[in-house]
């Protein structure tokens, strides 16, 4: 057993993947000597060389576009986008090329690529450094989108994403990188990548969260238990495809669902979750599915970001509204 | 520049003078080995036929001629098929045959090609069945050939995006130890095709930067056909395109793209540099789009027929034919046989095109992911049941 942070878990997972498969490459800005601005790739260039841990020119479309070529040549590139708000120059390559390659080639070409994106806010950063672009990618057929929420998942999920033969947008809650530690058992059998997980059992209402808001939801559930309310918390983990079976099972029991994400509520993952829950659990629902998230504004200046981000109180407020509907 | 009128104001020489008239006629930098009249000329740096016997050389030029004639036939047949409603659209290469055949024939089997959607001549050189080129334009698929079989990637529609793929692929070759070993069967290079319009794209410029930074074995082959749909080259660049390469740190050369011998010689040299580990080269094949951008375009709205007529005199096929005939390198039987072969190819294309069947509606759900997701499986089943609910359904 080793105590690790999320950053360490990701670093160890990347190292393991590179040891297991010589075709795995890491590409990105500052990923080499510096080890990435968050140190996720710390030490990897030293041990695996500049041909496998590639410091790239400062051009995101170039990073993803050349990764496409490397994947076509049989490599498994793991691309680091330095911050969420900088992924957009690569958006065309991701959406038009990476996502569609398998489909348009009728299965003859694969795109086994992982695009790691540190996402979400709460670190006091300047603009473009705190965003949650997941819906843009979950909306794109051909991509898979996952979000890790804790150190242990970080270790396993990054390895599973690299082993996946489809392109995976891998979202890392940057606020959690160095926040908490957990015991890693490297011999344990990991959960499959594209599965949601119930992380806290409860019977009164279901909280759906992923990435950074899993911790928020767990805190809210803890606080609610003090008031005699038992909240179930599901860490979605996979955003595309969604793994709805545990969600439906839970909502059928509780009759109430609240989705919590940092992304803007309008057309966010919460909207899709609400629609699917309504389609499948209509007669079990005792109130409409509620969404708690970022407001439909650009991300605010950091001194007021905690007001913008969904916190424990806003989650509990939504639970109150759901239960008193 | 007017003498004594230094408009650069201390920022070096006047650029209009430096780059000057070459923008319009190809300029003195143009590498040419076969004039529009069909005369062989020499060039101090590039040559064709070195190390070949006269018979081998003649055989090769006849081969180029055949490739160009058949490629033009593919193009004219496909254009006609679009007019007959058999294709939704077609991107014509008329006038660019020498640029494509010269570049395509310079490749070795282990080299890899990233085409635009107009590289029908290069596809021909790689052995892709021209009928397979039609699927995309008929709307039955998005490119049906196996890229790994021909080392010829699928057509890329998004302008310039493939130049990055080419660069990444070349970086992969470097990592595979397939560059600079001295083994002619092992050393490989990538060629990225794009046009003058694409030279304005961010992706193309990023590809130049990545290729230069990593010294990737890639040849950037730009067919400057003077037009990006309706926009002339002057809208894309104030300087001859090939001169941009210098700013990125690798050589650029402008070749007469209507001269198959020069295009072959220059591309072969650039590919060899790449295979030898000397990095990227920019080749600007100076040519002209004689047809429309695609069959939906109407060039009479934006260019003068005089210009087109001027370029018609530079026809890549006619100059090669003139050379072969004047020097007695091909007899009438050769031209007659080729004409018959072109007719046969045309008939095969027309028949093959009409036989390209529509895909099954349920194939929509195939190959989105390596393994079907439960979500898509459910959508597929639902759609199948919906289709079956109609009387007389398949």
UniProtKB/TrEMBL annotation, chain A:
Species of origin: Nocardioides agariphilus
Organism phylogeny: Bacteria, Bacillati, Actinomycetota, Actinomycetes, Propionibacteriales
Keyword Transmembrane helix attached: no
Name of this protein: Alpha-ketoacid dehydrogenase subunit beta
Domain Transketolase-like pyrimidine-binding: 4-179
SMART domains: Transket_pyr
Domain of life: Bacteria
Obligatory cofactor(s): thiamine diphosphate
Pfam families recorded: Transket_pyr, Transketolase_C
Keywords: Oxidoreductase, Thiamine pyrophosphate
MF GO annotations: magnesium ion binding; oxidoreductase activity
Automatic annotation (TrEMBL), chain B:
Keyword NAD belongs to the record: no
InterPro entries: Alpha-ketoacid_DH_E1_comp (IPR050771), DH_E1 (IPR001017), PdhA/BkdA (IPR017596), THDP-binding (IPR029061)
Cofactor(s) essential for the protein: thiamine diphosphate
GO biological process terms, semicolon-separated: branched-chain amino acid catabolic process
Keywords: Oxidoreductase, Pyruvate, Thiamine pyrophosphate
Gene Ontology MF terms in the entry: magnesium ion binding; oxidoreductase activity, acting on the aldehyde or oxo group of donors, disulfide as acceptor
Transmembrane residue ranges: none
Chain segments carrying region Disordered: 1-27
Domain Dehydrogenase E1 component: 66-342
DNA damage keyword on record: no
Matches recorded under PANTHER family: 2-OXOISOVALERATE DEHYDROGENASE SUBUNIT ALPHA, MITOCHONDRIAL (PTHR43380:SF1)
NCBIfam families named among the record's database cross-references: PDH_E1_alph_x
This protein's name: Pyruvate dehydrogenase (Acetyl-transferring) E1 component subunit alpha
The encoding gene: pdhA
